[in-house]
Amino acid sequence: MAKAYERIADEIRSSIRAGELRPGDRLPSEAQLAEDHRRSVPTIRDALRVLQDEGLIEKQHGRGTFVRKPRTTVQRTNERHQWEKDRAREPEDERLKTGSTEHDTGLTVDDLVFHASYAEVRADKELAEVFGMPDGTPLIQRAYRTRYAAENAPFTLVTSYLVRAYVEANPDLLDAANEPWPGGTQSQLHSVGIELDRIEERVTARPPSPEEAEELELPPGTSVLLLRKTSYDTDGRAVEMSDVTLPGDRTEMVFVTPLERW
User: Which of the listed residues 86, 134, 154, 191 has the most CB atoms within 10 Å of its CB?
Assistant: First the structure.
């Protein structure tokens, strides 16, 4: 038999899903809900905690409890890599029209706020192994954050690495001021004569760190997906590696696998 707080949570949940309570609506105070449901305030708090853990409501300090506004969903498919490769050699005015985030969200360039920062780092043992290079090899570390202008949290947390020796022939690839680069990483690599042959992606999941939960504005109990993407060129070299942290409440991973015909 359902407990009192579970029944109250179910009533509020049903009201949200039926549209009786709309995104952004403020819920009655805990005292008012307790009076309405003829239950104690602690029971109401238990019910609200369930809904908050489900991401249906959010508490705003000093303002009250509100129905959470749905965030823009990101649908990430493995087909995006061929899409990006097909664009890598297009004229710049064509590449400027859209990028991978727009591809994944359905938004336009004007809808987005983008930030990039670069730093030169030395490969630790793990990164050296990825690139097949000695420890201490100079790398370009790139951090990316892209968000919908109407929202505060970025879609993903991205840290990308390039081998400096592979890209330094084009000084533009060493300067974050040239971001966002029309056509993305594959177009950047094309500017120094590198063509990608394959991309490997490994996905795991875990609870977020406190810093990740804060930056991504995750509801309590929401996991993050961790994607490690390694790009190999036509000579079999690992030329770029990205660690991407994706929020579990707004990310859909889609894998499409073409099959050879008999």
Answer: 154
CA distance 250 to 107: 15
| 6-16 pLDDT, tens digit each | 899 999 999 98
| Residue 261 neighbours by CB distance under 10 Å | 4
Q: Amino acid identity of 226?
A: L
Angle (deg, nearest 10), helices 41-53 and 30-37: 110
Domain membership of residue 24 as a residue range: 4-67
Convert the pLDDT of each residue in 69-99 to its tens digit.
888 999 999 999 999 999 999 999 999 888 8
Task: Tell whether 46 and 100 lie within a shared domain.
Answer: no
pLDDT of residue 117: 97
Look at residues 164, 153, 154 and name the one whose alpha carbon lies nearest to residue 118: 164
As for how many domains the chain has, the answer is: 2
Whether 221 and 158 map to the same domain: the answer is: yes
Cα–Cα distance measured from residue 214 to residue 217, given in angstroms and rounded to the nearest whole number: 5
For residue 232, tell me if it sits in a domain: yes
| CATH number of the domain within which 239 lies | 3.40.1410.10
Structure tokens at 179: 């971001």
User: 0.85 cut: is pTM over it?
Assistant: no
| Pairing mode, strands 157-163 and 238-247 | antiparallel
The pLDDT assigned to 52 comes to 84
The CA dihedral of 33, 35, 39, 40, to the nearest 10 degrees, is 80
